[in-house]
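Hello support,

Our group uses your service weekly, and this is the first time we've seen a run hang past the timeout. The protein is Exodeoxyribonuclease 7 large subunit. I'm not sure whether the cause is the sequence or the server load. Input pasted verbatim:
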Amino acid sequence: MPNPVTPVSNSTLSVSSLNRLVRECLEATFPLTWVGGEISNLTYAASGHVYFSLKDASAQVRCVMWRSRAQLLGWRLENGQKVEARALVSFYEPRGEFQLNIEAIRRAGQGDLFERFLRLKAQLESEGLFASESKRPLPVFPRHLGIVTSLQAAALRDVLTTLHRRAPHLRLSLFPCPVQGEGAGEKIAAALGQASRSGCDTIILCRGGGSIEDLWAFNEECVARAIRASAVPVVAGVGHETDFTIADFAADLRAPTPTAAAELASPDRDTLLGRLAELQRQLARRMERSIAEQQQRLDWLGTRLLHPAERIGQRRQELELLACRLGQSLGRQIENQQLRLQAVSQRHAKARPQPAKLGEHLGHLHYRLHSQLRWQISQQAGKLKALASGLSQLDPHAVLARGYTLVIAPDGRAVRDATQLAAGDLLKLSFARGSAQATVNQVVVADEAV
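Update from on-call engineer: The timeout came from a worker crash unrelated to the input. Re-ran successfully.
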């Protein structure tokens, strides 16, 4: 057994923390346990959960069965029932209440049978024997029903009475078999196989209510497999509305009672006759409307019907009109083609080469070209002369030829101001012809103009 959770003694716990620790301690300490008692304070909540108390002579405990578990129960709980519940000891933290979470429940005194029922149900369910996609729909208009039950069963009278009232036209075949006692399961399975091979459209498997021991033949594995092996759909009406057997889960459709099974498997004759009469009225109305529409179409076609001679005359007039339009169209096309031919001839005449005229035009262009060249040469010669005159005025040699001298300082720059020189500088003097060197003895700075 795991050690309980012990909070630190010098710390202060919140109420929610304390309740959480209590729940963890209880759930870790107690495994799933079977608890027996009497149901009281039973409540079916709108959410699907079931709340109740289990009590005995001296104590009681609150219980909750969640919707996912309650849906698998197969029978309805009631106050005062003696039951045995497989429960997990827990603690509801928000309200600080001790409670049992119920995983499964069975009637007291039926523990072994109920355990066998749950094990077989789980096994067949894991094999897919109860899968909804394998369920077959019932025929809408069956002709032959098979009934598998006991000849002494009160449920047989209820089924036959219901079928006679709802569908007296149906053919019925009875396949008798015992519905309780030793070996009843194998005989029920054999009767189902015989009914499946008889050509029935649907099989009704029925029996009246009773205890779990009375209905145990319908919890046999062979019955469930015979239902699924049937070539036609099987409707199970076993026991009362609160009774669930393995046969109910295996059947293609489960009815709460044998009478309900007969109602589900058979169409109501009066309803069918009423529907047939309505369809007959609809067919008559549609036929009348169709005949009226065809008569109206016949009248319209009659107005379009002409005598052959009149129709030939109309076609002759249409032919003459088309011939006239064809002649006019051909005349217009010939006239258009003639105009196009004339236009092409004129363009061809204009495009024909004329050597004499072209030679005269070429001579005129030659004269204009020579005249333009002479004028351009004259213009460019005048511009060249003007540029040469301006260039000669800017020639430094011309300035030197008039007696001026170009003085070059030691740094290679032309001297324009005496302040650039100092005594002892070696200067280079350039003349119109030749050059010389001179040394500066004295620098005289001119006075600035006032």
